[in-house]
Amino acid sequence: MRGVDDRSVVSRVVEILAAASSRAVASLADLTLLTGLPKPTVRRIAEQLVESGALTRTPWGYQVGTRLQRLGRPHASPEALAPVHDALTALHAQLGGIAWFTAHADRVDEQPELVVTDPAMRLQALREWPAPTSLSTIALTAIGQCVLSRRPELAERVARTRAGRGLRARLHASADRGAFVDDEAHTPGRRCVAVPLVHGGVLGVTVPADRSPLDALVRATLAAAARVDAAGPRDGVPLSDPHP
Description:
The protein is α+β, with helices and mostly antiparallel strands. Helix content is 47%, strand content 14%. The chain folds into two domains: 9-69, Arc Repressor Mutant, subunit A, CATH 1.10.10.10; 78-231, Beta-Lactamase (2-Layer Sandwich), CATH 3.30.450.40. It has helices spanning 9-21, 28-35, 39-52, 66-69, 78-95, 122-127, 135-140, 142-150, 152-159, 167-177, 214-231, and strands at 55-58, 61-64, 98-102, 114-117, 180-183, 190-196, 202-208. The chain is globular and about 55 Å long.
């Protein structure tokens, strides 16, 4: 439905957000058609909304961003997250680097809810969380491959691109080992392992490539995830967002 362009900045922002939320991914053309606003205006406002976190830019268009999605979302209690924090603390003590947990196994644009790392690296850990701005980010990162394993229609789409070469084989290998890995494929000098949890969410670790052999990283991360799974949900609220 076309909105009314009353020259109000607020009304234009609301129209664009409403259009973006009306579908899973909205292209610039979609937003222009749905709002009836000039395309340059839509592009400018949409990019400002991306910068603020209200929208997320993907290779296929815009999605409602994390700041809006968190409003009204049921969250696991601190008690429910306690086993996750304990596992991350132990994993970081064992391997160093950045131990992390995200409640979203279906998205790559959400910052992790929990991060255990050296204090000097915390800001770096959040800044370096992969943003879904390219197909290579989705296809090569551990969390991206985890998402693709749960969204076969998206995996097939990515696998047909140059960035997705070898993706199917990587996903099959990850399913066999129970963990998704990025062995310096996305970021030279960094290794990352991600393991989906039974009660929702993904637990992982990112370390310098010379810190530990990949097999040792996988074993340690699988063991940490198993401890969280064994603890189970404590308050009946899943660790993951029920509305991906």
